[in-house]
Amino acid sequence: MSHHEMARCLRAWRDRLTPASAGLPSGALRRAPGLRREEVAHLAGLSVDYLARLEQGRAGNPSPSVLESLGRALRLSDDENAHLFQLAGHANPRSAGVNRHLTPGVQRMLDRLGDVPVMVLDAAWQLVALNPLCAALLGDLNGESGRRRNLLWRHFTGVASRVVSTPETDAAFEAAAVADLRAAAGRHRHDRNLRALIAELRQSSPRFAELWQRGAVARHASTRKTIRHPQVGQLTLDCDVLTVEGSDLRIVVYTADPGSPDARTLALLGAIGMHSFPGDVVTSGA
């Protein structure tokens, strides 16, 4: 691993970003160009100390998940992301298999749709990004890593959720989600991360193993979700899944009928924002 070259690149990429390009307020006059180290650390879900050590060439080998978070936060192109992974001695995850790259257009959409909850998932149901209102609604997954960022893993292993469900709605969601995952596995037969996820789910969840054995194949459709929020109460929202053309990314958007009680509750949540809400987080947001 080239610690010094990675440090130089990280500093240069941070310096070229403006607050507006990263979806942040410009604020007061800045002493230096680009984003502050604290801002990039927040966007990437890393500690400021760890990012400082990376930028100074003093950190150990960063994991692929850390590199992917940095790539998203710094708005790296495919070539720049490949260079970052090469410097760290890892294979480039964008070169084959499930495409998890958050394109600039999708990132701009995420930044500008501030009045509705939005999350971005890949074909394996791994969380790629979510906006602040979605984090306020469902719980902030930005601090999670590995399998705990995967919505199917969270659901089938019983991680607590704010989504209100019944045995009937759970059964419908599970059947549709597993069929969707099988379709993704058919499209990406050589994706090691996807194969590993399926193998671990079959071992960890008898329910998943049962559904997987059925062999159903389908794309996951839009639905409605009822969420019980610890501060603003219960609300039911339309949950629409939009596919990004030419990509495996899905944009999940939560909306309410204009003027409805649910719309007013959602607006209240947007007004009070993320104020260290206690409580659990979502397991099956799509």
TrEMBL record:
**Presence of keyword DNA-binding:** yes
Q: Is DNA-binding included in the keywords of this UniProt record? A: yes
Name the residues that span the membrane: none
Q: Name one GO molecular function term.
A: DNA binding
Q: Which Gene3D superfamilies match?
A: 3.30.450.180, lambda repressor-like DNA-binding domains (1.10.260.40)
**HTH cro/C1-type domain spans which residues?**
28-81
Question: Which Pfam families does the entry link to?
Answer: HTH_31, MLTR_LBD
Provide the alphabetized UniProt keywords: DNA-binding
Q: What is this protein called?
A: Putative DNA-binding protein
Native organism is Actinoplanes missouriensis (strain ATCC 14538 / DSM 43046 / CBS 188.64 / JCM 3121 / NBRC 102363 / NCIMB 12654 / NRRL B-3342 / UNCC 431)
